[in-house]
Amino acid sequence: MASPESAVNGPTMTAGAASKSLRNAFGGVIAFIILVLIGVLAFSIRLFSVIKYESVIHEFDPYFNYRVTQFLSKNGIYDFWNWFDDRTWYPLGRVIGGTVYPGLTLTAGTIWKVVNSLNIPLSVETVCVFTAPIFSAFASWAAYLLTKEVKGPGAGLTAAALLAMVPSYISRSVAGSYDNEAVAIFALVFTFYLYIKTLNTGSLFYATLNALAYFYMVCSWGGYTFIINLIPMHVLLCIVTGRYSSRLYIAYAPLVVLGTLLASLVPVVGFNAVLTSEHFASFLFLILVDRQCHLSSSYYLLVQVFIIIHVVALAYYIKGILSPKMFKVAVTLVVSVGLAVCCAVIAILIAVVASSPTKGWSGRSLTLLDPTYASKYIPIIASVSEHQPPTWPSYFMDINVLAFLVPAGIIACFMPLTDSSSFVILYIVTSVYFSGVMVRLMLVLAPAACILSGIALSEAFNVLTRSIKFQLPGIAGNPSIAEENGSSTVVAPNDIPKTEEAAKEKPAKKNRKKEKENVEKKPTPSKTEKRLLVLPLEASVIAVLLLVLLGAFYVVHCVWAAAEAYSAPSIVLTSHSNDGGLHVFDDFREAYSWLSHNTDVDDKVASWWDYGYQTTAMANRTVLVDNNTWNNTHIATVGTAMSSPEKQAWEIFHSLDVKYVLVVFGGVVGYPSDDINKFLWMVRIGGGVFPHIKEPDYLVSFSNLRMLTSQTYLFACLYPKRDGQYRIDAQATPTMLNCLMYKLSYFRFVETDGKGFDRVRRTEIGKKHFKLTHFEEVFTTHHWMVRIYKLKPQRNRIRGKTKKSKSSRSVSSKRDVRGKRNPWH
């Protein structure tokens, strides 16, 4: 028969469980609504580029992706895989299907097909423009899922809101930024979420989904090497720190097997996953994000950790079978044999790798480990602006206040330290290092910074709001506050004696020993620590207000960055006059439109590689080089032509069947990213292949300067190893003043203002009046930003006249020489 006490407690417990389930359901609905609003925020904050300008593709690489997507939607997937593009890298061409990461193209093409099947008439360009904002919302939701697995739903919602607005991610995902990173960041975060989910649950279902998410990441971006290096590092960390479990094995082993097999199906990766070996010291460093990195860069780390985790799993299995004494003997034998085998394998690997000039490392990998390597040996890598190390202000610009919240988030991950929180710590540490090497990798740092900052803010608000609740009048003495808030970490001071008294009540004889052990398991220091979490009321209120103010400052900065800093497309430029007027510079599209309407379809256009994708996509003309930069010799040939005198440059371009040369010039309107500012990179790249091109010939030695200004003197002191100063004024070297790039940029420039004053270099040019003998100007845009020249045809030679003139010249020259040798005759 039930006791009266149990009869009373039964309905009470049922009512408490019902109210708790109702509270959880209501909280789930609120969380869902907040996630929807975060998705709307992530999408809408990236539409400033469309609102302020127009629906247009941005930058350079997105134009190639747009062109490929157009071909895919028009011709189908089979033609896409077999597409040989003869309009790029003339006369070599390019196999598109085997040299691109198809994830972005297939995603946008699928969206376009589904939308049109629903009778929604959207163009391919519109789908490409809005793909990045859509996937930014997906990335925010993935950040919520990941952070929820680490520290709960509150931290997840905060991290999702931060990632939706972080400027570093906005810079690569505004409307019109149709690049691989548009979908890759979502794939990166979602793959990490599935790995942590598998690690927490040990579910083989989530492990399979993790391999599929990794496959999508491989299809989308070369940054997949970050995943396949970071996860083995975390597995190794767990094994070394004694945190091995069956869940860890399930999370890692299927990813290695299925992930590697699926990655081999991507044509741009193929069997490079197992055939090539870039390095073997992956335990110390990661070979990370670059669009041309291959899975081989992480293959050794992947295999080594895969072997180690199986050895550890076997050791745990044998330990459960053998006796302790036999287990020690077996361990001694295995360790002895293993060390001998490992030493032999390492010796062989060292011998093989030492035979390589770069010790088995690729150029981009060495650049990540040594930021000065590319500038010394591979100028084509160093010439890319996004491969340069970032400055300290760029961290504040791209992640803002998150830089100050990340350390607090790391501390929160240690209380307590779990497998998932250790992974997040490892993620932030590696991403911080590599973001300091290449400014492009700030994009990888942004999700980690948002996750850690979300954890820090969530933990801080939990402590502060709980402290305020405990100390409000009429609530402090309520012992159910901690339970109502779902907190097990904070206990009100008035509740501690009651719990101790309840524990000291006389239990039954059978349970007395167990109750005594439970009481002894509660150490006094832990209670002291819990009491310290309850802060004074005034301090808690002030801290909450400061955190709200910090969040408001972050929101204002993010909106400003999205509206002003990252919304302008590079193909359409704007500026404001002193009276507030807006000036639009649409010279790029003007030039490409002229090429499209005034040149033949088969004409070849030469320009620096930055403008190759745009020329092919917008003008539909064949180019020599483009932004793929896969052939250093071909790019060096164009750089050599631009660095050579006019006649030699004409011969180089004529041998490549070039008919038009395009140069970008900003001296009239003050556009700093013109070809004159990039010219030294053309010299360095060309000189790396053709030794007769030497950089010192284009620099003015400090000893030869007629007037040494304070700025020049400071430059000479800061860079003593530089051969001289880069100048375009009257003190420039003859080699510089006579090269093709100088002539094509400054031809007729003096007619603009009568002085030839360059607004970018802030000086008057040195050579103002000259004529072109082998090139003719055919088009210059309204603001002189793009200039197009045509190669003059080769002159017809008259045999008799030519021979006669040559013979007469030779006779006269001989007489002159004789006269010089014998002046007295």
Concise description?
With 825 residues, the chain is mostly helical. The termini are far apart.
Structural features, described:
- Its cofactor is Mg(2+); Mn(2+).
- Residues 497-525 have a biased composition (Basic and acidic residues).
- This is dolichyl-diphosphooligosaccharide--protein glycotransferase.
- Belongs to the STT3 family.
- InterPro entries: Oligo_trans_STT3, STT3-PglB_core, STT3_N.
- The protein has 825 residues and is mainly α.
- It contains 37 helices and eleven strands.
- The strands form four sheets. The protein has a five-stranded mixed sheet, sandwiched between helices. Strands 1-2 form a two-stranded antiparallel ribbon.
- A hairpin with an 8-residue loop joins strand 1 (84-85) and strand 2 (94-95).
- The model is unreliable at 277-298, 477-532, 710-721 and 802-825 (pLDDT under 50).
- Helices cover 61% and strands 5% of the residues.
- The radius of gyration is 34 Å and the shape is globular.
Shape: globular
**Major beta-sheet overview:** 5 strands, mixed
Strand pairing plus helix content: what structural class?
A: mainly alpha
Which percent band covers the strand fraction? under 5%
C-alpha-based Rg, rounded:
34 Å
Secondary structure: helix percent: 55-70%
* Overall pLDDT: 80
Distance between the termini: 145 Å
Number of strands: 11
The strand line-up of the biggest sheet is 6-5-7-11-10
User: How many helices in DSSP terms?
Assistant: 37
Oligomeric form:
single chain
Uncertain runs are 277-298, 477-532, 710-721, 802-825
Cofactor: Mg(2+); Mn(2+)
Organism: Linum tenue
Subcellular location: Endomembrane system
EC number: 2.4.99.18
